[in-house]
Every structure is written in structure tokens, then in C-alpha cells.
Amino acid sequence: MLIATWNVNSIRTRLSQIIDWINQVNPDILCLQETKVIDDSFPIEPFEKLGYSVEVYGQKSYNGVAIISKIKAENVKKGFCEGNSDEHIEFFQDQKRLISADFHGIKVINVYVPNGSSLDSDKFDYKLKWLNCLASFLDEQVKQGGFICLMGDFNIAPSNLDIHDPKKYEGEIMASKLERNALKNVLKGRLIDSFRIFEKNTDHWSWWDYRNNAYELNKGWRIDHIYISTELSANIKSCVIDSLPRGNIRPSDHAPVMINLNLDDINLDLFEDEDDFFEI
DNA sequence: ATGGCGACAGGATGTCGA
Fold first, then answer.
1. pLDDT tens-digit profile of A171-193?
2. What residue is closest to B4 (Cα–C1')?
3. pTM for the full model?
4. Angle at the Cα of A229 from the Cα atoms of A141 and A260, rounded to 5 degrees
5. CA–C1' gap, A174 and B17, in angstroms
6. Which of A88, A177, A221, A227 has fewest C-beta within 10 Å?
7. Shortest CA–C1' contact from A10: which nucleotide?
């Protein structure tokens, strides 16, 4: 099963490129971020024509997430809705940055983490609070049992290996200790970075700034990630960043990232107490 | 380089992203 994530920076501007990519790669599940459109205006038909179902959670101009899937999404949830106090939900619900759904017993959580602007900005405070809320949300999902796939645009380079020039950006936005610790607190060791299962010590980027010829100079960051329950690590056959779409005419500034997950030999014993899993 | 580049809303140019 191919599961992919892509910050497309406007679904309407990038539509034909996304359709081309789907035709070429044939993913089973594609999580999108920065769709930048209200739900009523999301172009659902081009995906349905290819046999996909579409779940959207968007808003005007900013943010917006969606899940495109061949398998029908079960238990779709939009925004933070569990494991968080009502005031948290209230605080975060105006920015559409999270959608989750179950597929064959795997809970797919698609996130667009706030950028945060700079460390002295109110937006940075919002980013850390949002990540803390995500940690609580994830705690609740883990409690419910089942495998988890947490993916999307995290706007954080987990280590200096994920930045083309770590010295230049040391301690700055997307590279700070505070953000990295907030991300670690989300993962809590129970989820692992799929990409680093295969690429232990290599430079690969998922985002290149539109400015300063960054893509041509290959000056990028790896800020788009697919985290998966540690129990599933043996089932991941590959994790690849497809950088080619970044070279398109009028590209997104992000590249798609995907994993190939083998579900054939998943150990169902892990879920012997989870009736929900067997109903699917 | 307090600038780059691109999308958006709106109908010029400011805001936002990363």
C-alpha cells in the first residue's frame, strides 16, 4: 500500500500536476496540505474520476488539508476533537490543519503544522501550543489502540542532517531546540520517522524555497515527514521523497513523500483487545 | 539582502508562507 503526503500550496493552482502525479505513482492514500480552498470549492471530481474518495477540511486562502484515497475513509475526524479540552478545540478550530481517518485499521493523521514565522513571534507561540495539542490528541489515539500513521508538513527539521546549511539556520525557525523538543513530545518514541529507517546519514530535502534559485542549487530542508507506529517499522518497504515535481513549471515548493507499506504480515495479535480492528 | 518568490483576495498592493 502506497501512502503519500504532499504540501501542494493551493489545490486549484496545482490540480493538473497532482492528477499527473497520481496517474504516474498510483498511490492508495494521498494526504494534502495547504489546499487553500473552502470545502465547497474543492475540485473533488477529477479525483473521483480516477476512482478516489476525497475528504476535505479547508478554509479560504490559508491552510486546508485533505485525504484522497482509493479505500473509503472510515471514522473521519476534522480538527482536534479528542484528548483535548474544549478550550483547546476552540482556540485551534479557526485554522484547518488536521484531518484523520482510518484505513484497514490504520489511523492516518494528516497535519499541516504552523510555520511559526520566527522565534520572537506570536505565531511561534501558536506553533508550540498547536504541537502540544497534537501531542494530547495523539495520546488519546494511542490509548484507543491500533496502528498510527502521522504524516504531513511539520515545518520542523528534526535534526541538522535535515537542513542544507545547518550552521546558517542554527536555532532559528524550523531548526530550534524548542520545536524539535515539541515534536519529540508528540512522537514520544512510539512513532518513528519512516525516512530514517532507510536513509541513516544522507542529505535529502522535501522543501526548497521559491527564492534564490534554491531548488536548482539544491538548498533545501526535510520538513515533510511520515511517522509510523514502531510496531510497523518492519512492514515499511520503502520511504521516498519524489523531488521531480519540484522541477515542474509553477511547482509547489514542497515535494511529495511516500512510503510503501506491506500489510500482508501485520501482527494482528497486537490488537487482540481491539474489537474495532477486526470489524474492518 | 527586513530582500528574494508565489498564492491569495480583489481589482493595487498587502499579507502570508518557510
1. 999 999 999 999 999 999 999 99
2. A211
3. 0.94
4. 120
5. 13
6. A177
7. B7
